[in-house]
Amino acid sequence: MTATVTPTRPDGTSPGGSGAVVLHYTLKALGRISAARGGEVGNSRRIHEVIPGSVVRGALAAAWWAGDAPSGANAARFRELFESDLIVRQAVPDGMSLEPISARRCKYPTPACPVEWHDLAQQGEPMKKCPTCGGALDAGRGWAWTETPRTVHVTRTALAADETAQDDQLFTRRAVRSRTVLRGSVVMLNPDAHTEDLAWLTQPRELRIGGQRSHMGQTGWTCARALDQSGLSGAVGTALSPERVTLRTLSPLIVIDDCGAPTLDLGPTLRRCWPEARVVDEWVRPARVSGWHVASGLPKPEDLACEAGSTFVIEGLPADATRQLVPGLGLRRLEGFGEIEVVAMEGPVPAQRSVAEPAERAPAEDPLDRFIAVVPAGDLPALLPRVAEGVRSVLEARPGTRGEALAAVLRQPWAMQLGAGARASLSALLAVEDLPTMRNRLDALREAHR
């Protein structure tokens, strides 16, 4: 007989109450967002395109202490909420999707090559080369853009005493564009003790995210309780197969071995929770995660982690493990690390998804319609003339050299910056037989977008 298990806090204690509650939040960038990645010193600065939960959590805490706190709030209540019962997960921009590390597809696809990913963990068949062209394979890389990346480069210069630009003092910082929408979730482990705090989380407000907050990082916060709470608030969760399931990381996973040393091996962590569980196969990409503690002005320690998209095939999990995995696995879970997606052979368990995804549009058969569907509306007017010029260059190529002309278009800088979905649609568009009709349709679209 299996006992009913409710989610535990990251420190292993039981929160009590009726069970955890999940809320989905949305951040709308009212200005550029630049959350720095790494502490290196140089003339350019890398950023997080997926905003870590630690950054969002810090922005909420800053709003709390800036006067936007629930009535009657004090330091003890803040510690209980932020250091014990509130898990804040990462914010993923619209236009990004998770490419599992276990997924493979053709690295240099021809028009005949499939654009879908082949997941080794799900489909099980080994894949050494593209089954169509025999070329090399590309592996999934975690969170990746499926459309034109929503980032820009911001260049500044240092000023001299007379407020003129100093020579050789240019600094470049990447940023997520304004009007970008990012989505994520928070988990309240003990909602019965935080009724007023739940109401506070669901109130619209402005947050400052990332660095350079004097002129960047302004976002609008909205949050609502998730409609699907199955497996979270005492309801019966999706039962797992006793034979084999797949665990996929949605955020970096930090785990340690039996001696407390950092490792990429999930086995010791699983065995501490479920002694019968074992890792059958794994596809892991290492990563280094750190951060900056704004209140103290000190860097956070750097940890070894399994990158988002890392995949593990597991045997021996109990049927109710889904509910126990709600807070995630590993260390620093309050900051959003260790979020897990449980994947059965028939597909993902919906209750474990962290991002409130919009309803999927039915795939269009026409390659031009598919291209328009995956490109942001604001980027389309600038891209249409380039696509039309690409169609003309392929159409005007000598007989037998259209393939070379198509490849030349895909190598152009503007095409290289497209997301994977947009590049695949562009390749299919350039390979259609009736290119004159496609050229005329593109000309009509350009006129409509002027």
Protein topology:
Layout: E1 21-29, E2 44-45, H1 53-65, H2 75-85, E3 86-88, E4 92-93, E5 96-99, E6 103-106, E7 118-119, H3 120-123, E8 137-139, E9 142-145, E10 151-159, E11 165-176, E12 181-188, H4 195-201, E13 205-208, E14 218-225, E15 245-249, E16 255-256, E17 262-263, H5 267-273, E18 278-283, E19 286-289, E20 292-293, E21 298-299, E22 303-306, E23 311-315, H6 321-324, E24 340-344, E25 347-348, H7 367-374, H8 380-395, H9 402-410, H10 413-416, H11 420-430, H12 435-448
Parallel strand pairs: 2-11
Antiparallel strand pairs: 1-12, 1-14, 3-12, 4-12, 5-9, 6-7, 6-8, 10-11, 13-14, 15-23, 15-24, 16-17, 18-23, 19-22, 20-21, 24-25
Helix pairs in contact: 7-11, 8-9, 8-12
Write structural notes for this entry.
Strands 1, 3, 4, 12, 13 and 14 form a 6-stranded antiparallel β-sheet that branches. The radius of gyration is 24 Å and the shape is globular. The protein is built from 12 helices and 25 strands. It is 24% helix and 25% strand. The chain is an alpha+beta fold and 450 residues long. It has helices spanning 53-65, 75-85, 120-123, 195-201, 267-273, 321-324, 367-374, 380-395, 402-410, 413-416, 420-430, 435-448; strands at 21-29, 44-45, 86-88, 92-93, 96-99, 103-106, 118-119, 137-139, 142-145, 151-159, 165-176, 181-188, 205-208, 218-225, 245-249, 255-256, 262-263, 278-283, 286-289, 292-293, 298-299, 303-306, 311-315, 340-344, 347-348.
